[in-house]
Structure formats: structure tokens, C-alpha cells
Give the backbone structure.
Amino acid sequence: MSFSRFYNKEEYGSVNTGIIDLYISNSDKQNQYYAMWINKYKKYYTELNKNNSKDSNYDEECNDGNDKIAEWKIRYYKSTWEMFSSAVLFTEAEFTYSQDCYVSFYFDIYYSLLHAMQALIYLSPSQNFESLFRMSHHKIKNCFSSLYCCKKQLFHDSGIIEFFEELKYMREFYSYNTPMNLIPDDIKRKLNRCKSYVTALYQAISFHLYMIRSTICTCDHYDRIMFNEKFDSFFSNTDLIKLNQKKKMITNKLKYRKKKVSDYSVRFQEALNAAKTVGSLENKTNVKLLNKKYREAQDQKVYYENELQRIKKDLKNVKIDIAAENIRRECNGTIYPSEYILQWELDHLFDEFHTYDWDQTQNKNSIYDFHKAFDMVYDAIM
């Protein structure tokens, strides 16, 4: 039996699930896998709707549940982004192999597998949205293993984690050691094995997007300011959520320190005047104490002022990919993607991924054709 039977043929047409069918070939086990993940998505969506509440900080029709649902637009784009990145790296590995350029070979196939695994992690409802920022390689491996490699999961007993660790070692080793004596046949076997895994991952991404579409509806009412911060955190060089939270915290602390400086200044002047008038030991001691507290508060104020300036500078230096800017405009302009049907949007998504630069790449006379990456994804899922 095949996982393709779960798809609505009228909407999706022909769907390729050939590799994941090999991983779980039994019809009952395929049903169990489908039911298990459908229930996870349904439970997640139900809990979000329960948590919906009015929030006076923005449109009264917005709520926390809708904000969480809107995050799936970001997950969708980021997952497909990582999938295309994986395909680009793999097809570059094929090219370097064909040119007998082995130094970068393990870099390409290792990161191809890494990006494909990460793409599927984005589609797990058990992963908190914020936890997906800046995932380390070690975290990606452990997270993927716990989500998709345990019993009844798609990649159980597939050997993908062991292969990932092998490629990681080879990538690190050959970063410092030129592979002068590699056996081409061994490289070819690793290339084929990696292709089998990433193809299975692309098919799994497509299948999970189908299940997400069946359970998690899109919404129009959500906090768009927070949405943009989350989007930029995923598609930039900075975690904007954390940075803006820190900016808010530092601003509040600076406000408090300024008030302290003002209070101590007034109290110091009052104590100084009293000491001049009365001249008691108690008044003189109080002057010294208040002067010390005033200087401490002043130093803290200067510290937080400098911290705030540093954060503002970091915010100005945030770099957003041009392609990501196009995607964000689409997200804010419409409910797009309203369907999450990867097969329908593949051409469009790849155009966004490469920023509609077909004419530019044509004029470069590049010996590598990045459109092979599109063909690879297309052949994997269609």
C-alpha cells in the first residue's frame, strides 16, 4: 500500500510517496502513522482555540490562539525554504562529484541532509515556536530523532541518524584534511544514500503539510507586529523577539534608574543643606551615604543607556534576505498560503526562494544550474 492513498486525488493529482512507502509498507501501520499525526495536529489546534482570549493591546478580534495559528504560515515558508536549500546543496554535491571536486563534497551532502531534517522539524506541533530559532546541529539531530525515529515513526530503523553522524564527522574531518585518497565508489554510495534520505524527507514534508491543511485553519486576525518580529527572527541573522524583549527590559530598568538618580539628587541636596545648617555627625553621615547611592545609581543609569544604544545598533544591523521580504509582504497582504498545498505552489515557492532571478542567472553563464534543485524536489513529491 501507499501513503498516496490518503491524498485527495481531485485536489492533488499525482503524488509521489515511493520512498516513504518503503519505510512503512504495511497498510495498517500507515493508517496508524496517519491517525497518530492527524490527532496531534487536531489536539494542538483545539487547544489553541481554547486559549483564545481578548487582548486589549491590539485588535479585539485578535487573540493568543490566532497568533499561534498565524505562526504556521511562517513554519510553512521556513520548512519549504529549508527543503529548497537542501536540494540546492545536494545538486551542488552531485556537480562537485561529477567534476572530481571532493573537498566540498561532504560539506554539501551533510548540510543537505541537515536542512531537510530541520524542514520536517518545523512541522511538528510539539515544538514550541520560539525553540525553533537558531537550532544547533546537535539539537536538530536529537529533536529529529525523538520526533521521527522512535517506534511507529516514519524514520524508525532507517539508519538516518547514524548516517547523519557519519556525514558530520566527515564534514568536520575534511574541513582540515584534504581528501586526496578518497575512493570514488564510496563517495558515490554516500551520494546515493543521501539522496534516498532527503527524497524521503521531502515526501514526508509534503505528507505532513497535507495533514496540517486538514486540521489547522488559517486566520486573518492576529497581532501583525508580533508576527513580523517572529518572521524576521526566522529569516534574518538576529532573534528579533529576544532582542526586542531585551530592549523593553533595559528601557524599563533605565527609566527606574533615572528616577532613582533624580530622587537621590534631591535627597542629597536636602541632606547637604541640613548638614550645613545643623552640622551634626548624623547629618554628615547621611550626606556621605546619599552621595554614594547617588553615584551608584548614576553609574547604573549610564550602563543601561549604553546597553540600550547597543541594542538599537543591533536592531539597525538586522539583515533580511530579499526573498524573505517578498514572502513577508505576501503574508501580510493576504491569508496566503490559504491551502498549504505544496504541489500547487511549488513553482511559486521556488521563484520566491530564488527571488525571481532567472534572467540574472541566465546572463552569468554559470556552470551550475540551480534549477536542478527545483527538478529534484518536483520529482520527489510529484
In short: DSSP finds 15 helices and no strands in the chain. The longest helix spans residues 240-278.
